[in-house]
Specification:
With 524 residues, the protein is an alpha/beta fold. Helix 5 runs antiparallel to helix 11 and helix 9 packs across helix 10. It starts with a helix and ends with a strand. It has three domains: 217 residues, Metallo-beta-lactamase, Chain A, CATH 3.60.15.10; 66 residues, no CATH class; 176 residues, Rossmann fold, CATH 3.40.50.10890. Helices cover 31% and strands 23% of the residues. Strand 2 and strand 3 form a beta hairpin.
Length: 524
Amino acid sequence: MIKNTGYKSLFVLLFLLISNFIYAQISVEYFGGAGRVSGSCALLSANDSSVIIDCGSFYDEGNLPSDNSVIDKKLINADAMVLTHAHNDHSGRILQLISEGFKGNIYCTDATKKIIFEMYDDGWNYDYVKKKYFWSKSKREKIQLRESREPLTLHWHSACKNAVRNKEESKSEVSLMQLKDKYGINFKVCKSCLSKDLENLQSRFISVEYKDNMDITDKINFSLYNAGHISGSASVVFYVYDENKIKTVAFSGDLGSGYSKITPDKDIIPKVDYVFVETTYGGAKKNVSNADYQKFQETISNALKNDKIVWIPSLSLHRTQKILFEIKQAQLNGLISYDVPVYSLSPSSNGITERYEKEASFPSRDRWFKDEVYQTGSFLPENYITKRPKEFPCPCIIISASGMMDQGVSRSLISTLLPLENVEVCLVSYVGPKTPAGKLKKGAKVIRVGKNSVKVLAKVNVFDIFSDHPDIDELMKWLSKQNSETKIYLVHGEKSTLENALNLYKKNGFVNTKIAVKGINVLN
């Protein structure tokens, strides 16, 4: 009896040790967004299952690598993905991931699904999607001969084969960027082929309502909470089950600033065991208030009264729509004449604006906006124009993507607008320090665009009120249900910001705070 009891006790002890060890192997591996801002992508692994949280694109952050061409096999083999929101630095490599072989479903809010398919419909983020493409050889040779920037259309569905004369095709699956490097010309994807792909892809994106509980496996489920960052943005709380134990792991996604005029404020998440928190501006208190919206309206009003061009480089998604809404408010307040043309020149921005307009007119069950937006019924100011004129009149307002001025229409306008003294630039987005907008923010008098140097004579204004990220005070509010036992990992921030935030978190009683590392963070 004594021996049997001893063996039983030993067995129970070993079982507990083993089960605790197995349980301790819940891990979160970061592939981007740890120790930096861009490329947000994490892999939660537990119980032989794994879930991706976001799969974003990298952008230039100084000495940090920004290669978007490689997808890790661990991500390709994951069971599912939870997407926090549609911004490029969180969603930009999803199509590439799928083209590399990812088979899982992608869970997000219905607003995020609608927004991201609006962007996909514009051919967004196909640069690294590998397919066996074909195209017109004669058109390719003409473009090369003329050294034209005109893009050549790529096809991949058999239905287009008869429509392409003198066909040329890739011998294996390649990306647009590989073809661009090979031929030295620009490419775009066929709208018909893209439409067929997106139709098949719709069923892979599963809409989830805030605070509903969704199973991924029999031992991992999650709930989404409104993050208040942009329309449809979410924080995620995972519930990981092991025997009779439950561990909770939260990911903030990007959180709202608390000052948005159009997006409802963020939910406070429940008490969790572990939480990964974005730290874009989390290392300090921001000196902003709602009065800054009035300052923005007055700055534009004064510039326009002096017959100036107001140029607002802006993110396509959500920021452009916030700016349009603020211009509309300025018109209603009598600060901007209804006769002043408002040019919105980026097709990607304008497609999203159309989607926002539909929501403002016909609210979804999960309402995207604050009541004020639905009461106004529109984001569009009077004299809203989406076609670029041959010459910009004075005065006028120009809105273009990207906000960092390193891509798209914004980049193309640098040499036209920055050398003019009758131009006022309004920076309204987060800007990478090495981007043209980042350099302008620091007071640069010359901006490099390719091989050319552009002298800056335009006046530059900076408005932080449009930021969709929280400062340290707002983050403490979001963490108000956590305590000193909660293990906090800081992500999505520049090195100095992360270090400052670490000190502030500990001063606020969160003693189990650390900066997440790229690679595996074991949760125990």
